[in-house]
Write a structure and sequence with these properties.
Largest sheet: 5 strands, mixed
Strand order of the largest sheet: 4-6-5-8-7
Number of strands: 15
Length: 575
């Protein structure tokens, strides 16, 4: 059956008109029918980016039928062009005798010859045809474009192309365009398969002509520029920043965030309406960590760098953060706990890198990155970097009275945090906010024994079954794009990291209902299994002893610090 697709059908008449001989077929249309030249062009008037092949007597070979005989008419869709009647429009869409005209116009581009002053620069004369290179998921094609006949539209190439779902590679005298479909294809390909722009363009060229891909025009540089613009527009449309709104997005305003985390006036009432037990329920719980693999090489020409969304997603705004890094007190004491590389190796630096890693915050319950809190490291993971990240993350939770911060080296970070905030003009923290520090359950095993009762999540009231290590799983996904992003420009590097973090949050959101249901069912089952056993154990103990332990626990939960030593394991030494 596979060989049947490579042979010439016994019935060689056109499957559409049933009159002319059929010699053309389409690799992308459904079915095995053959077409004559006129019917093939007519059938592809609304699907102009299909791959057409012609029988040459021995086999099917690639045909340029649509290149020469199909003209794409860009008019005021969905309205008809008022300058010419609809009948003329239909006649000019396909002219079976225009193939000889294509050879004469092959190297012409009316936009180069008909120029006049205007906001769009060069332009074609209304109604003229021009050649346009179009990149789609099915290949790279050259098509003739007939621009609108309206005089008022002679300068509006970009608008006409966008209405036809074609994104121009330049906004002045465009000669290349990308279909909306191929830009969405590349965006999802990059997010799901970590496909680089060069690999994606190589794939499109092979789809166009697998035998001789080097003959196909290379639009790699254009894809880099257009995909960056497409990514930014996609984020702004999804965030509602459209229709020329006068207000610019707030810091992190284009990013998606966790819909289940407590946010006043979004999913929880104001603080004045809270019940006594709501303090723990509405407490934000954040995980903080650094990633030493997300490095960035020094850019050779930084003056050419242009950012489209500086500080509007997850990476912090560049200028304030750079000023903070340059002026903040350089306090990096050696760890008094175990030999934590995150702190003791904070002064490491590589001359070929301008970023030696990244630090971020995520919600501890659901694993969503917090917008506008991702920072670059200059000399490893230093406290001035993480302080800035944490303060930016806590800005999303104003008027909360308490916050849980889970950090691998929280035992050392928490010592000077308040002092660092008070000494820096770039760090802000609500005075009424109480910070409870903890260490993730996996990292806590590497700390000294004294850290266990003070920083264990098991002894933080209201933390539930949070393990504090969810950010490690988020980093593992971003580690796969290190090789693709480290040599990009600074702005492009940050925007790609933003895109992957935004997509990570999006996947968390769409899967959250099933995830929360599974966790709730597991917790409910665990409570029913362990509840009777706990009650049985309590009943078997001395009631006065249980009452004493309960009182000690209440004091430890309220005052913490040294009062948590009641959980320290005590053993008498053997004599």
């Amino acid at each position: 059956e596979l060989l049947r697709h490579e042979s010439f059908p016994s019935k060689s008449i056109c499957s559409n008109c049933q009159q002319s001989a059929g010699e053309y077929r389409c690799r992308d249309c459904f079915g095995l029918g053959l077409w004559c030249g006129a019917c093939c062009v007519s059938a592809h008037a609304h699907v102009p980016f299909h791959r057409v092949e012609m029988w040459n007597g021995k086999f099917f070979e690639r045909s340029d039928l649509l290149t020469y005989r199909l003209t794409l008419d860009l008019c005021h869709y969905p309205d008809d062009c008022p300058s010419i009647p609809p009948i003329t429009e239909a006649q000019m869409m396909f002219d079976p005798d225009s193939s000889h005209e294509a050879d004469e116009l092959l190297d012409e581009y009316p936009a180069d010859r008909h120029q006049h002053s205007g906001p769009s620069g060069s332009t074609t004369h209304p109604g003229q045809r021009s050649k346009l290179l179009i990149v789609s998921s099915t290949g790279i094609f050259t098509r003739w474009i007939r621009w609108c006949h309206c005089v008022k539209s002679s300068d509006q190439y970009v608008q006409l192309l966008l209405r036809a779902k074609l994104f121009p590679a330049s906004f002045k005298n465009p000669k290349t365009a990308f279909t909306f479909e191929v830009l969405d294809h590349f965006r999802l390909d990059a997010l799901e398969c970590n496909t680089a722009a060069m690999n994606f363009m190589s794939k499109i060229r092979r789809i166009t002509d697998e035998a001789f891909p080097s003959r196909v025009p290379d639009r790699y540089r254009e894809l880099l520029r257009v995909s960056q613009q497409w990514r930014d527009l996609h984020n702004r449309i999804r965030a509602g920043v459209v229709h020329d709104r006068p207000d610019s997005p707030v810091d992190g305003g284009l990013a998606l965030f966790c819909p289940a985390c407590p946010q006043i006036d979004i999913n929880i009432p104001p603080e004045t309406e809270w019940k006594p037990d709501d303090r723990l329920l509405y407490r934000p719980q954040l995980v903080v960590d650094g990633n030493m693999k997300l490095v960035h090489l020094i850019q050779r020409r930084p003056e050419h760098d242009v950012s489209l969304s500086d500080g509007e997603l997850f990476m912090v705004k560049w200028a304030p953060y750079a000023e903070h890094s340059a002026n903040a007190p350089q306090r990096q004491p050696k760890s008094k706990c175990s030999n934590h590389r995150a702190q003791n190796n904070g002064n490491l630096h590589w001359d070929h890198l301008d970023s030696t890693g990244k630090g971020a915050c995520a919600c501890a319950r659901h694993g969503a990155f917090v917008p506008h809190c991702v920072v670059d490291f200059q000399k490893g993971e230093r406290q001035i970097n993480m302080d800035y990240s944490i303060c930016q993350a806590l800005k999303r939770f104003p008027h909360h009275v308490q916050a849980l911060i889970v950090y691998d080296i929280c035992c050392q970070w928490s010592i000077h945090f308040r002092q660092c905030v008070s000494e820096s003009e770039f760090l802000e923290l609500y005075d009424s906010l109480e910070i409870i520090g903890a260490v993730g359950k996996w990292h806590l095993a590497a700390h000294i024994p004294e850290c266990f009762p003070k920083f264990s999540l098991n002894f933080v009231e209201g933390s539930g079954e949070v393990d504090g290590e969810i950010l490690e799983t988020l980093w593992s996904g971003l580690d796969q794009v290190v090789g693709m992003t480290q040599a990009m420009s600074i702005a492009h590097h940050q925007e790609v990291i933003d895109e992957y973090m935004n997509d990570s949050n999006w996947r968390k959101i769409i899967r959250m209902s099933n995830s929360l249901w599974a966790k709730w069912s597991r917790a409910k089952q665990g409570l029913s299994d362990t509840g009777p056993t706990f009650e049985q154990l309590s009943d078997s103990l001395d009631a006065s002893l249980v009452q004493e332990w309960t009182a000690q626990e209440r004091v430890a939960m309220e005052k913490r610090d040294e009062h948590l030593n009641i959980y320290q394991v005590r053993l008498d030494k053997c004599r």
